Amino acid sequence: MARASRTTKTKAAAAKRPAKKTPAGKAKAKAKSGAKSTAPKAAPRAKTTAKATGKPPATRSAAKKTRAQTYVEADPVFAAGLELRHAMWGPGGGEDQINAASDFLLPLQEIVTKYCFGETWTREALSRRDRSLVTLGILVSQARPHELKVHVRGALANGVTKEEIGEVLRHAMVYCGIPRGVEAYRSAAEVLNELGLD
Question: Where are the annotated segments for Disordered (predicted)?
């Protein structure tokens, strides 16, 4: 019978011997046996606290305030004006315009919201409905078709009917001139048509 080679014997002997344990292997073995591990623990993460930074820790749920919200919290007159703009035109005619305004247009939004709507439109001597009728007549006299379209929508939101809008335009045309009245009628009809009211 042929003798097994020395290399084969060496390999067989090595397989029977228990493997040397590395420090990590020793830690795993101790953990399995219930003994306390001597492996170094990872350093705990440093917590950012109010004491360390002087600020309360930020939370994910805390949403960033919009520009409109900041103004509303700082000024009750502005808040009243914005509420009225929202009631007449929704967020597109109020909050969205303020939040999207450039540095150049922001002062305009402040004046419109606070002075025009917050201080004037909110006065109690005239209702919003009455103010809408007056505004339509004035815009006819000034030949301002874009603003007239805006205020036709606002008037409808304030309870003015299509027939009443027509009467105001007709009345204003007598005093302001036929060309301005024609332009006003066309502008109003465009809005009424868009809203399915004409």
Answer: 1-68
